Amino acid sequence: MVTNAPEAPKRPPAVILGGGRSSRMGRPKAGLVLDGRPILDHMVERLAPQVGSIALNLNADPGIDLPRGLPVLADTVPGYFGPLAGILTAMRHAAEVAPHAAHVLTVPTDAPFFPDDLVGRLSSVPDLEGTIAVACSDGEVHPLFALWPVAIADDLEAWIRTDTKLRVRAFIARHHSVAVDFPMISTKAGPLDPFFNINTPEQLQQAEAWLQRLKDPKP
Q1: Both ends of the chain: CA-CA distance in Å?
Q2: 13-215: CATH architecture
Q3: I need a labelling partner for 11 at 20 to 30 A (CA). Which of 53, 62, 148, 205 fits?
Q4: 137 with 193: CB under 8 angstroms?
């Protein structure tokens, strides 16, 4: 038995995926403001206690001051290949900054209510090695909230360069994966999906309303 090998980090590295076109929003979602603060501040605050490091995958300037010390990663594959390119970038980054980490966590930049036990529950999957652990809620899978084995990076790059549809779910189907269910958040106004994401200006307004409900301690 090898006893002098470095111990793998208990908390995985994480990458926030902010490289999308944001066509329905009309501006980069990484630059959105929620409750008077950049949405990235909300994301980093939730992630920081759960992970070993945080970086941001971004291909366009969101026009804001980014959180201090947050590395920005452009896609490693030239051209626009959607979220799979961001996931690959996360894998390559993890291999550099945490070479003993078996997985990297990805989260999208537009879902500020994700669980504060996201990593704990995803990483509790039995026989996690080589497995993609994906979050789900209310019967729906959320493929960008996932722990990805760093070892499948080369397969993902080959998939990106040869597949025409570039669907995240299709790539997941190539590998062993487990969906981890998360409960809805109880609020006075009814259940809130913890993976509620903001794609439009109207949904940004909805997120503001949900946030105020979550902050209100009244029964």
Answers
A1: 56
A2: Alpha-Beta Complex (3.90)
A3: 62
A4: yes
